[in-house]
Design brief:
Order of helices and strands: HEHEHEEHEHHHHHEHHHE
Shape: globular
Helix content: 40-55%
Structural class: alpha/beta
Radius of gyration: 19 Å
Number of helices: 12
Number of strands: 7
Largest sheet: 7 strands, mixed
Length: about 290
Amino acid sequence: MTNTQLRGESPAAQGEAARRRKAALADAFTLAADEYDEANGGFFNPIGARLARLAGLRPGDRVLDVGCGRGAVLFAALAEVGPEGYVVGIDLAPGMVRATAAQAAGHGLRNVTVRVDDAEALGFPDHSFEAALSSFAVIFTPDPAAALASVRRVLVPGGRFGFTAFGADEPGWERPGAALNAFLPAPAARLRQSRAARFNPLGRSPEEAAELLHRSGFTDIRTVEHYAATHYPDAEAWWHSQQAGGWRGVLEAIPAEHLDEARAAALAALAPLAAADGTLVRRTAIRYTTALRE
Protein backbone atom coordinates (compact mmCIF):
# COMPACT_ATOMS: atom_id res chain seq x y z
CA MET A 1 0.00 0.00 0.00
CA THR A 2 1.42 3.40 -0.98
CA ASN A 3 0.97 6.47 1.15
CA THR A 4 -1.95 7.67 -0.98
CA GLN A 5 -3.86 4.41 -0.64
CA LEU A 6 -6.56 4.32 2.00
CA ARG A 7 -8.87 1.46 2.90
CA GLY A 8 -11.97 1.46 0.75
CA GLU A 9 -10.47 3.63 -1.99
CA SER A 10 -10.74 2.33 -5.54
CA PRO A 11 -7.64 2.28 -7.76
CA ALA A 12 -9.15 5.16 -9.72
CA ALA A 13 -9.57 7.20 -6.54
CA GLN A 14 -6.02 6.41 -5.47
CA GLY A 15 -4.73 7.51 -8.85
CA GLU A 16 -6.70 10.72 -8.74
CA ALA A 17 -5.42 11.49 -5.22
CA ALA A 18 -1.84 10.99 -6.40
CA ARG A 19 -2.43 13.19 -9.44
CA ARG A 20 -3.86 15.99 -7.28
CA ARG A 21 -0.96 15.72 -4.85
CA LYS A 22 1.62 16.00 -7.62
CA ALA A 23 -0.24 18.92 -9.20
CA ALA A 24 -0.39 20.73 -5.86
CA LEU A 25 3.35 20.24 -5.31
CA ALA A 26 4.13 21.44 -8.83
CA ASP A 27 1.93 24.53 -8.42
CA ALA A 28 3.33 25.44 -4.99
CA PHE A 29 6.96 25.15 -6.01
CA THR A 30 6.37 26.96 -9.30
CA LEU A 31 4.97 29.89 -7.32
CA ALA A 32 8.00 29.81 -5.01
CA ALA A 33 10.63 29.30 -7.71
CA ASP A 34 11.83 32.86 -8.33
CA GLU A 35 12.56 33.58 -4.66
CA TYR A 36 13.33 30.05 -3.51
CA ASP A 37 17.11 30.09 -3.77
CA GLU A 38 17.50 33.56 -2.29
CA ALA A 39 15.27 32.75 0.67
CA ASN A 40 16.24 29.12 1.30
CA GLY A 41 19.50 28.41 -0.50
CA GLY A 42 21.48 28.92 2.70
CA PHE A 43 19.75 25.85 4.09
CA PHE A 44 19.44 23.59 1.04
CA ASN A 45 22.71 24.24 -0.81
CA PRO A 46 25.11 22.92 1.88
CA ILE A 47 22.88 19.86 2.28
CA GLY A 48 23.02 19.23 -1.46
CA ALA A 49 26.80 19.54 -1.43
CA ARG A 50 27.10 17.06 1.45
CA LEU A 51 24.82 14.58 -0.32
CA ALA A 52 26.92 14.82 -3.49
CA ARG A 53 30.07 14.09 -1.48
CA LEU A 54 28.54 11.19 0.42
CA ALA A 55 27.35 9.60 -2.83
CA GLY A 56 30.95 9.14 -3.93
CA LEU A 57 30.54 10.74 -7.33
CA ARG A 58 33.50 10.36 -9.68
CA PRO A 59 34.84 12.50 -12.51
CA GLY A 60 32.99 11.66 -15.70
CA ASP A 61 29.89 10.24 -14.00
CA ARG A 62 26.44 10.81 -15.44
CA VAL A 63 24.16 11.92 -12.58
CA LEU A 64 20.39 12.29 -12.29
CA ASP A 65 19.02 14.80 -9.75
CA VAL A 66 15.44 13.80 -8.92
CA GLY A 67 13.42 16.82 -7.76
CA CYS A 68 16.20 19.26 -8.56
CA GLY A 69 14.42 22.42 -7.38
CA ARG A 70 16.79 25.36 -7.74
CA GLY A 71 19.88 23.18 -8.09
CA ALA A 72 21.17 22.51 -4.57
CA VAL A 73 22.27 19.02 -5.63
CA LEU A 74 22.54 19.70 -9.36
CA PHE A 75 25.37 22.21 -9.19
CA ALA A 76 27.16 20.40 -6.35
CA ALA A 77 27.09 17.17 -8.37
CA LEU A 78 28.43 19.01 -11.41
CA ALA A 79 31.42 20.18 -9.38
CA GLU A 80 32.10 16.55 -8.37
CA VAL A 81 31.88 15.00 -11.86
CA GLY A 82 33.78 17.75 -13.64
CA PRO A 83 33.68 18.81 -17.29
CA GLU A 84 33.70 15.21 -18.55
CA GLY A 85 30.62 14.34 -16.49
CA TYR A 86 26.98 15.18 -17.08
CA VAL A 87 24.12 16.08 -14.75
CA VAL A 88 20.40 16.00 -15.52
CA GLY A 89 17.89 17.64 -13.20
CA ILE A 90 14.20 16.78 -13.25
CA ASP A 91 11.34 18.35 -11.36
CA LEU A 92 7.54 18.30 -11.38
CA ALA A 93 7.40 22.10 -11.11
CA PRO A 94 7.81 23.90 -14.45
CA GLY A 95 8.75 27.11 -12.65
CA MET A 96 11.67 25.42 -10.89
CA VAL A 97 12.82 23.91 -14.18
CA ARG A 98 12.71 27.25 -15.99
CA ALA A 99 14.59 29.10 -13.23
CA THR A 100 17.28 26.46 -12.79
CA ALA A 101 17.78 25.97 -16.52
CA ALA A 102 18.18 29.74 -16.89
CA GLN A 103 20.74 29.77 -14.07
CA ALA A 104 22.75 26.99 -15.74
CA ALA A 105 22.61 28.77 -19.09
CA GLY A 106 23.63 32.04 -17.47
CA HIS A 107 26.80 30.36 -16.21
CA GLY A 108 27.53 28.89 -19.63
CA LEU A 109 27.22 25.30 -18.39
CA ARG A 110 26.98 22.88 -21.29
CA ASN A 111 26.94 19.56 -19.42
CA VAL A 112 23.68 20.24 -17.55
CA THR A 113 20.10 19.57 -18.63
CA VAL A 114 16.97 20.46 -16.64
CA ARG A 115 13.52 19.24 -17.61
CA VAL A 116 10.05 18.46 -16.29
CA ASP A 117 9.70 14.77 -15.42
CA ASP A 118 8.14 12.46 -12.85
CA ALA A 119 10.25 10.33 -10.51
CA GLU A 120 7.70 7.52 -10.73
CA ALA A 121 8.02 7.22 -14.52
CA LEU A 122 11.39 8.61 -15.57
CA GLY A 123 11.71 9.26 -19.28
CA PHE A 124 15.24 7.92 -19.73
CA PRO A 125 16.58 4.67 -21.21
CA ASP A 126 17.75 1.86 -18.96
CA HIS A 127 21.24 2.24 -17.45
CA SER A 128 21.55 5.94 -18.31
CA PHE A 129 23.29 7.09 -15.11
CA GLU A 130 26.07 6.11 -12.74
CA ALA A 131 24.32 7.90 -9.87
CA ALA A 132 20.92 9.30 -8.92
CA LEU A 133 20.43 11.78 -6.08
CA SER A 134 17.32 13.32 -4.54
CA SER A 135 17.28 15.92 -1.80
CA PHE A 136 13.89 16.22 -0.04
CA ALA A 137 12.00 14.98 -3.11
CA VAL A 138 11.51 11.20 -3.21
CA ILE A 139 10.28 11.40 0.39
CA PHE A 140 7.13 13.13 -0.92
CA THR A 141 6.30 11.04 -3.97
CA PRO A 142 2.88 9.35 -3.68
CA ASP A 143 4.22 5.96 -4.84
CA PRO A 144 7.76 5.55 -3.50
CA ALA A 145 8.04 1.95 -4.69
CA ALA A 146 7.36 3.11 -8.25
CA ALA A 147 9.91 5.90 -7.88
CA LEU A 148 12.58 3.50 -6.61
CA ALA A 149 11.85 1.03 -9.41
CA SER A 150 12.16 3.88 -11.92
CA VAL A 151 15.43 5.11 -10.39
CA ARG A 152 16.83 1.57 -10.30
CA ARG A 153 15.97 1.06 -13.96
CA VAL A 154 17.91 4.11 -15.13
CA LEU A 155 20.98 3.32 -13.01
CA VAL A 156 23.79 1.12 -14.27
CA PRO A 157 24.43 -2.07 -12.24
CA GLY A 158 26.32 -0.98 -9.15
CA GLY A 159 25.09 2.59 -9.60
CA ARG A 160 24.71 4.80 -6.56
CA PHE A 161 21.52 6.28 -5.16
CA GLY A 162 21.38 8.88 -2.40
CA PHE A 163 18.65 10.99 -0.87
CA THR A 164 17.96 13.24 2.10
CA ALA A 165 15.06 13.29 4.56
CA PHE A 166 14.11 15.49 7.48
CA GLY A 167 14.89 14.35 10.99
CA ALA A 168 13.79 16.07 14.16
CA ASP A 169 13.60 19.84 14.66
CA GLU A 170 14.59 21.45 17.90
CA PRO A 171 11.57 21.65 20.25
CA GLY A 172 9.26 24.57 19.62
CA TRP A 173 9.70 24.89 15.88
CA GLU A 174 6.55 22.90 15.22
CA ARG A 175 4.42 25.68 16.76
CA PRO A 176 4.51 28.26 13.92
CA GLY A 177 3.50 25.59 11.42
CA ALA A 178 0.71 24.39 13.69
CA ALA A 179 -0.54 27.98 13.95
CA LEU A 180 -0.74 28.22 10.17
CA ASN A 181 -2.41 24.83 9.86
CA ALA A 182 -5.19 26.05 12.17
CA PHE A 183 -6.34 28.43 9.43
CA LEU A 184 -6.64 25.79 6.73
CA PRO A 185 -10.05 24.71 5.44
CA ALA A 186 -11.08 21.34 6.85
CA PRO A 187 -10.10 19.15 3.84
CA ALA A 188 -6.63 20.71 3.60
CA ALA A 189 -6.18 20.49 7.38
CA ARG A 190 -6.98 16.78 7.37
CA LEU A 191 -4.39 16.23 4.66
CA ARG A 192 -1.74 18.13 6.59
CA GLN A 193 -2.51 16.35 9.86
CA SER A 194 -1.75 12.97 8.33
CA ARG A 195 1.98 12.44 8.47
CA ALA A 196 1.62 9.68 5.90
CA ALA A 197 0.21 12.23 3.49
CA ARG A 198 3.35 14.32 3.79
CA PHE A 199 6.10 11.71 4.00
CA ASN A 200 6.23 8.27 2.46
CA PRO A 201 8.30 5.47 4.09
CA LEU A 202 11.53 6.92 2.69
CA GLY A 203 10.99 10.01 4.83
CA ARG A 204 9.50 8.56 7.99
CA SER A 205 12.35 6.57 9.52
CA PRO A 206 15.71 5.03 8.53
CA GLU A 207 14.30 1.57 9.23
CA GLU A 208 11.33 2.00 6.90
CA ALA A 209 13.55 3.52 4.24
CA ALA A 210 16.04 0.65 4.43
CA GLU A 211 13.29 -1.94 4.18
CA LEU A 212 11.77 -0.33 1.10
CA LEU A 213 15.17 0.17 -0.54
CA HIS A 214 16.06 -3.48 0.04
CA ARG A 215 12.76 -4.66 -1.42
CA SER A 216 13.35 -2.41 -4.44
CA GLY A 217 16.69 -3.96 -5.33
CA PHE A 218 19.19 -1.77 -3.49
CA THR A 219 21.97 -2.92 -1.21
CA ASP A 220 24.77 -1.49 0.98
CA ILE A 221 22.21 0.88 2.52
CA ARG A 222 23.72 3.44 4.90
CA THR A 223 22.19 6.37 6.75
CA VAL A 224 24.03 9.13 8.58
CA GLU A 225 22.58 12.17 10.33
CA HIS A 226 23.93 15.70 10.53
CA TYR A 227 22.38 18.88 11.90
CA ALA A 228 21.75 21.85 9.66
CA ALA A 229 21.32 25.35 11.09
CA THR A 230 19.21 28.04 9.46
CA HIS A 231 19.82 31.63 10.58
CA TYR A 232 17.07 34.24 10.28
CA PRO A 233 17.91 37.90 11.05
CA ASP A 234 14.33 38.41 12.22
CA ALA A 235 10.85 36.91 12.10
CA GLU A 236 10.09 38.59 8.77
CA ALA A 237 12.94 36.67 7.16
CA TRP A 238 11.41 33.44 8.47
CA TRP A 239 8.02 34.43 7.02
CA HIS A 240 9.61 35.18 3.65
CA SER A 241 11.25 31.75 3.63
CA GLN A 242 7.83 30.14 4.09
CA GLN A 243 6.39 32.12 1.19
CA ALA A 244 9.33 31.14 -1.01
CA GLY A 245 9.51 27.48 -0.01
CA GLY A 246 7.60 24.30 0.54
CA TRP A 247 5.03 25.98 2.81
CA ARG A 248 3.82 28.10 -0.11
CA GLY A 249 1.14 25.51 -0.83
CA VAL A 250 -0.21 25.82 2.72
CA LEU A 251 -0.27 29.60 2.51
CA GLU A 252 -2.10 29.43 -0.82
CA ALA A 253 -4.72 27.14 0.77
CA ILE A 254 -5.49 29.58 3.61
CA PRO A 255 -8.45 31.81 2.66
CA ALA A 256 -7.15 35.22 1.60
CA GLU A 257 -9.30 37.03 4.18
CA HIS A 258 -7.57 35.08 6.97
CA LEU A 259 -3.98 35.21 5.75
CA ASP A 260 -2.98 38.29 7.77
CA GLU A 261 -4.45 36.72 10.90
CA ALA A 262 -2.63 33.44 10.15
CA ARG A 263 0.64 35.31 9.68
CA ALA A 264 0.19 37.11 13.02
CA ALA A 265 -0.55 33.82 14.78
CA ALA A 266 2.53 32.15 13.28
CA LEU A 267 4.80 35.05 14.23
CA ALA A 268 3.38 35.02 17.77
CA ALA A 269 4.18 31.30 18.01
CA LEU A 270 7.66 32.04 16.71
CA ALA A 271 8.42 34.81 19.21
CA PRO A 272 9.51 32.57 22.15
CA LEU A 273 12.18 31.03 19.92
CA ALA A 274 13.86 34.36 19.14
CA ALA A 275 16.99 35.65 20.84
CA ALA A 276 16.98 38.98 22.65
CA ASP A 277 18.02 40.78 19.45
CA GLY A 278 15.23 39.16 17.45
CA THR A 279 17.42 36.72 15.52
CA LEU A 280 16.39 33.09 15.12
CA VAL A 281 18.38 29.90 14.61
CA ARG A 282 16.61 26.71 13.58
CA ARG A 283 18.54 23.44 13.93
CA THR A 284 17.17 20.47 12.05
CA ALA A 285 18.49 16.92 11.87
CA ILE A 286 19.04 15.83 8.25
CA ARG A 287 19.25 12.15 7.30
CA TYR A 288 21.45 11.19 4.37
CA THR A 289 20.84 7.73 2.95
CA THR A 290 22.99 6.09 0.28
CA ALA A 291 22.61 2.73 -1.42
CA LEU A 292 23.85 0.70 -4.40
CA ARG A 293 21.78 -0.73 -7.20
CA GLU A 294 22.10 -4.52 -7.23
